[in-house]
Amino acid sequence: MAQHDVDLFVIGAGSGGVRAARIAAGHGARVMIAEEYRIGGTCVIRGCVPKKLLVYASRFSHDFAEAAAFGWSVPAASFDWATLIANKDREIARLENVYRTNLEKAGVEIVMGRAVLEDPHTVRLLATGARVRAANVLVATGSTPNHGPAIPGIEHVISSNEAFHLPELPRRVLIQGGGYIALEFAGIFEGLGSEVTIVYRGDNILRGFDDDVRAHVRQEVESRGVRILTNRHVTAVDKSGAHYVAHLDGGETVEADRVMFAIGRHPNVSGIGLGAAGVEHAEGAGIGVDAYSQTSVPHIYAIGDVTNRLNLTPVAIREGHAFADTVFGGKPTRVDHADIPTAVFTEPEVGAVGLTEAQARAQFDAVDVYKTAFRPMKATLSGRNTRVMMKLIVDSSSDRVLGCHIVGHDAAEMIQLIGIAVRMKATKADFDATMAVHPTAAEELVTLRQPIARHVRAAAE
Ligand SMILES: Cc1cc2nc3c(=O)[nH]c(=O)nc-3n(C[C@H](O)[C@H](O)[C@H](O)COP(=O)(O)OP(=O)(O)OC[C@H]3O[C@@H](n4cnc5c(N)ncnc54)[C@H](O)[C@@H]3O)c2cc1C
Asked: Cα of 46 to ligand 1 centre, how many Å?
């Protein structure tokens, strides 16, 4: 590899790129990584981590409201957005530094600035104009918010990127979108005291999740005062003094102090020289790769959101690690994208793993559905109007648990552990044989006795 400056050039120091660079360097490769914004990428800088910190902040208002029934008198609470954002920014800066230090300790050379492919083996660093010859290239450029068609007034619309840095908490927020990012920000703003309206073009929020989860979350979120307008979309946004007026199809208007769109994300494939390098990709669909994350050009690989497989941080990290082990560790490794547990940090949370009821009924001849909805113990005293929902989807013939869906406090923590059982192909009998932990909400998962329904697929004619 003497004619190359490095064994591996990684474009993008996000979740996937950083892991790949560190592991490849650990296998002895000479690695360079370029980052045009901040080390750590979306998850650390303007995704999972700052979002979860804001979610924590938003939940205090509910806790204060519940405290009285447990004997506490809490003086009227006040909230300061500037303090929250400053503390959040300090923590993000600390994490960014940890990522940088870990790369440096691993012997990875970091270059700040945009990197583009000039030909299959040459990467150009736009800040300096320098060219780097690389034996292998890893594209780990992630994804960016996509605002959809350019409606009038689109320049007034913010994305999650800006929501993390607003100068003040908006009194009224309109969020267009029905996915997890839209719902999580709705919960954040609602908990911190804003009036929130969600506008979504589909029938119901959280497309792709189990239908009972979608209905339950909608009801819970609405009961907290978030207005959800479905089968509607924003056609224009006007600025009117210090606030905005969003026009919806059908003529309705909604006034808001901020209008945010969270309607999807685009893989970052534009302007990075994929054409010059001969890498096949489709605009919007991401870079096509095989099970080893190899693109149509054998020494160019792609991982994470830019491949648009399953756009989650742990997936990008696993793909980056597998790539490094495959190419530099002599250990070909595929990533299994089945049964990946996932969470939505709404209030209450969603945790899901495996098949939804609809997916299971389409794939299996007979499916048993176990479901329960109950008032959590804490709410019996506090009087809070909330219910937990839990659902198991079971293959009737093998007894295997195909899917688990939870809406309730700490559902994200629960689903991480249930994910192990589902991946190990645990049966309903295994769940039943597991002793309950009492008193918990999770014990309901091992005490579901009778299915609420058995669905048998009609035989094909
Ligand atoms: C608001 C929000 C909340 C989220 N919450 C969660 C969550 O709770 N759990 C979860 O699992 N996932 C969550 N995600 C998704 C998660 O952030 C992504 O799946 C993950 O960051 C993808 O990692 P990646 O390495 O593919 O890309 P990224 O982390 O996006 O990293 C790509 C990096 O490449 C850089 N880059 C791009 N082009 C170039 C170039 N030409 N030259 C140099 N650098 C370049 C970018 O600046 C970026 O830093 C969330 C995302 C958002 C937006």
From this structure: 8
